[in-house]
Amino acid sequence: MIITCVESIPLRIPFKAGSVSDASAWGDSNLPAADSLLVRVTTDQGVVGWGEAFGFRAVASAKIAIDQLVAPLCVGQDATRIAPLMLDVQKKLHVFGRGGALAFAISALDIALWDIAGKAANMPLCQLLGGGAADLPCYASLVRYSDPPLVRTSVRQAIEAGFGMLKLHEIELPAIRAARDESGPGVELMLDVNCPWTLTQARAIADDLKTISPKWLEEPLWPPENVAGLAELRSATGIPIAAGENVYTLMDFERLLAAGAVDFVQPSPAKMGGISELRKIFPLAAVHNAEVMPHSFYDGPGLLAAIHATAALGTADSMIEWRRFDLEAAIYGRAFSPKHGRISVPRGAGLGIDPDPDVIGRFRLSL
């Protein structure tokens, strides 16, 4: 089965006017839309696979990486030989870096090839990976609002939507406390601060953070590769630590885990090599007594990749990150969404669902 075409498809889906999500994202005020980058891989037998690269402001650069670097190495190759092909791509392109937009592009291609593999075998990807739960617990991953009243509104809406676990992206104590005050003690809160602090600064704020009893504190340190600092913060404060979204290679994940730096490791399938690399993290984490909680702050094939891999390889405590954005449209339509804090694993072949062509037609972005 030969790859005949690799097409990168940028999308820009606006926030609904007046929605809470429209207010801010990571403090990026007036962000008008959520940009994403899909990849469609077609074979000579007519089997089509879909992948996703991490998007937002990286869409243009990831598209260039796909179109000019990754796709030319893949067209004409055997789609069924995923591991050899992806290793060859990585080796030939490593001089351009092992992370960033190039890693996003490679990830998208890999996810699409696994979608093709599942479709060719006529089985859901989770089954192809060796197992599969029917559904998984998921938590609402909120954007950063900074303003305590907006935080309260967002938290209340997520709870009313059935979520019993929420992840904040706040970094200021008033906003963090507002979330706990609104949720009450019965809701689990996670806190992702996106690498803002030195080790000294993080230790100084640790006692205040403990008052909200976070399930984990995610990426507290700058730079994110300060593995020794994460291990020291975890040991000194007793706060469970999560990280991994900005880790790109298996060797670096091994260093993170071997250092005792995290309780929860967070590989991002649309960033770190797709399903081929993601599936290797689960046994590695088990050796180090850490839980895998994939990063999936996107809502296309990258999200489905996280769901299928977790359903097949995760534990009873594994959870899915559900990006809670109020957009004008969803890549898979409104039918695919959590109910009562759980998400069903799609049972169709491959990733189980293809992107809605009407959504692609309406929101395709010219670059």
Could you walk me through the main structural features you see in this protein, from its secondary elements to its overall organization?
This protein folds into two domains: 3-122 and 358-363, Enolase-like, domain 1 (2-Layer Sandwich); 127-357, TIM Barrel (Alpha-Beta Barrel), CATH 3.20.20.120. The longest helix has 22 residues, at 100-121. The mean pLDDT is 95. The strands form two sheets. Strands 4, 5, 6, 7, 8, 9, 10, 11 and 12 form a nine-stranded mixed beta sheet that branches. It is built from twelve helices and twelve strands. With 367 residues, the chain is of the alpha/beta class. Helix 2 packs antiparallel against helix 3 (100-121), helix 7 runs parallel beside helix 8 (227-237) and helix 10 (274-287) runs parallel beside helix 11 (301-313). Helix content is 39%, strand content 17%. It has helices at residues 59-74, 82-93, 100-121, 125-128, 148-160, 173-183, 199-210, 227-237, 250-258, 274-287, 301-313, 357-363; strands at 3-14, 33-43, 48-53, 135-141, 165-168, 188-192, 217-218, 241-243, 264-265, 291-292, 320-323, 342-344. The radius of gyration is 20 Å and the shape is globular.
User: Number of domains in the coordinates?
Assistant: 2
Mean of all residue-level pLDDT scores:
95
Return the CATH class of the largest domain.
Alpha Beta
Strand content: 15-25%
Structure summary, number of beta strands: 12
Distance between the termini: 30 Å
The CATH architecture of the largest domain comes to Alpha-Beta Barrel
Number of continuous helical runs? 12
Tell me the overall shape: globular
Following the backbone from N to C, one meets helices and strands in this order, namely EEEHHHHEHEHEHEHEHEHEHEEH
Measured as a percent range, the helix fraction is 25-40%
